[in-house]
Design brief:
This protein is an alpha+beta fold. It has helices spanning 9-23, 34-41, 45-57, and strands spanning 31-32, 61-64, 68-71. A three-stranded antiparallel β-sheet has the order 1-3-2.
Length: 77
């Protein structure tokens, strides 16, 4: 991934994940692996965690300590 130097990397990663969730590429309950994201985006675990924290605040993902982060289920309506 080529990063825009004017925006934090974690914001750009969150944008990519958000797009994948919206498109259905990441279905509800899809597990988001921090290790895989580190490799894919070439960033540190801290950067990945900032991105997942932002997505969690938006209600797009849920995180269970010791288990992992998952795409939130879709709500009917």
């Amino acid at each position: 991934m080529e990063y825009d130097p004017t925006r934090p990397k974690w914001v750009q990663i969150a944008d990519v994940i958000r797009t994948r969730i919206a498109s259905g590429e990441y279905a509800p309950l899809h597990q988001l692996s921090e290790v895989q994201m580190e490799r894919e985006f070439g960033v540190t675990r801290v950067t990945v965690r900032k991105a997942t924290a932002a997505l969690r605040e938006e209600g797009l993902i849920t995180t269970t300590p010791g288990i992992g982060s998952f795409v939130a289920g879709r709500h009917a309506g």
